[in-house]
Each structure stands twice: as C-alpha cells, then as structure tokens.
Amino acid sequence: MRGSPRRFLLSDSAQAATIQLPTGMQSVQIRSRGDSWEQERKMAGEKGAISWSYNLEAALEQARSSKKWVLLDFTAAPM
Amino acid sequence: MSENFVPVRVHVREQADEFKRLGERYGAQWTPTILLINPAGEERYRIEGFLPTEDFLAQLSLGLAHEAFAKSNFAEAERRFADIVERYPDTEAAAEALYWAGVARYKATDDPSALGETARQFKKRYQKSSWAKKASVWDRDEGSAATARQ
Fold first, then answer.
1. Can you give the residue ranges of every domain in chain B?
2. % of chain B at pLDDT higher than 90
3. What percentage of residues in chain A have a pLDDT greater than 70?
4. Contact (Cβ atoms closer than 8 angstroms) between residue B136 and residue B127
5. What is the layout of strands, in order, in the sheet containing A16-20?
6. Which of B76, B103, B131, B140 is the Cys-Cys partner for B68 at CB 3.0 to 4.6 Å?
7. Whether B34 and A73 lie within 8 Å, measured CB to CB
8. How many Å apart are CA A61 and CA B40, to the nearest integer?
9. Taking residues B101-109, what's their average pLDDT?
10. Nearest-CA residue of chain B relative to A27?
11. Tell me, what's the pLDDT at B137?
12. Cβ–Cβ of B54/A6 closer than 8 Å?
C-alpha cells in the first residue's frame, strides 16, 4: 500500500463501495446495512475473506498451539 | 491478518448468551469492540467503535507494537512502530506510532538523540496531534531525555 491513494470516503447514502488497493496487497469491500457497517477484507496470501470462528475457547487453544493471538470481535454486523 | 491472529466473532443478537458471558468477562458493552487477546486469554489491546480499514489495520499493528514494548523488546517495538508510520501515514495511529518509535529507539539504544530527532520529525508532520505536543518537550535539548530515562 505504498505510494498510492489510500483515502476513500463513502457518503452517508452510499450502499456499497469496492476499493481495489494497489500492489495486490488488499482488496476491501464495505457495505452499509442499516445502522451497521460490514467490512470484508481479503489480505495478501489469503484466498477469501476473514474466516471467523465463533468459539473463543477453541480459538484460544488454536492460538496457543500456533503461537498467535486471538482477535475477538464483539459485533452487531449481519452474520 | 491470519499471520498473527485467530479471528473470533461474538454477535450481540445471534449469540446473545455468549455475548453476555464474554461481554462481562472482558467489559465489552458496545459494538464493535475488538480485543487483542494473548494465548493466555488476557486482553492486551482494545479498539472500540468502527474504523475504516486502514485505520483498523494500523490499530491492530499498534497493539502488537505496544505488546513488544511492554515486553521490553524495544528493537522489535521500534521496527513495528516505524512500520506503522510508513504503511499507514494518513491514520491517527501514525502519530502515536511515530512518538513511540522514538521512545523505543531511545530505550533500545539509551541514546537521547532519538527523542530529539523524534521531536524534530513532529515539526514536519502530525504537528497538530497530541503526540506532537507530548514530543515537543524533547526538542528543548537532548539532555531533557534525562527526565524520560526511567
């Protein structure tokens, strides 16, 4: 994401926007659904959007074995 | 993101009981609230409220950088903070990262000039940020680092 446009704005009435960032590092789709926002991120090296788990204890076990951290998202976004 | 994190979601309505249980455990009363939790289950960083993607990613990186700093891994912390400034220069996190990159460099090298140099960088960018005000004291003379040497 170096040396290229990074700013983007959505108007209040915008329902959807797709932004393709350069260098293939990341594509982002942001959609407005009612009073919440949903972001789907496709990161470099990943084939799809974030693969969420819904079980913290299992995620912690996975984090311990893989020496990662848990990103816990308390959300109201549509599932 | 998958390089560093196992992502877990708790939905306020679809998982009401789980939301209540974990919300009480971690003190989350608003959505979105995003916590960085270490493998021991301890919260180490918190993001409350929606952020645009770049700001969100910058905040996640800040969490990892602060954790390195807290563990006294100052060289790693400096690298992580500096990377935030380079990769996400237009985010609010960048000013904070610039500040802490200077602190981490000072901690790693015990060289007060790291703080003075940071203060001078704040004269060129992020001048209106609270972090620029915090760094301004370092520009008086590099001996002022003695106050920060703790």
1. 1-49, 51-148
2. 87
3. 38
4. no
5. A16-20, A26-33, A36-43
6. B76
7. yes
8. 9
9. 98
10. B53
11. 95
12. yes
* ipTM passes above 0.90: no
Fold designation for B51-148: 1.25.40
Surface of A (34-73) touching B: CB under 8 A: 36-37, 39, 41, 43, 45-46, 50-56, 59-60, 62-64, 66-73
Place of tokens 């952020």: B51
Domain ranges of chain A: 1-73
Q: What is the pLDDT of residues A34-46, one digit of tens each?
A: 434 444 443 333 4
Contact yes or no for B22/B34 (Cβ under 8 A): no
* Whole-angstrom distance, CA of residue B31 vs CA of residue B29: 7
Burial class (CB in 10 A: 0-12, 13-18, 19+), B79: middle
Residue B145 tokens read as 């680092």
pLDDT surpassing 90 at residue A12: no
Is B41's CB within 8 Å of A55's CB? no
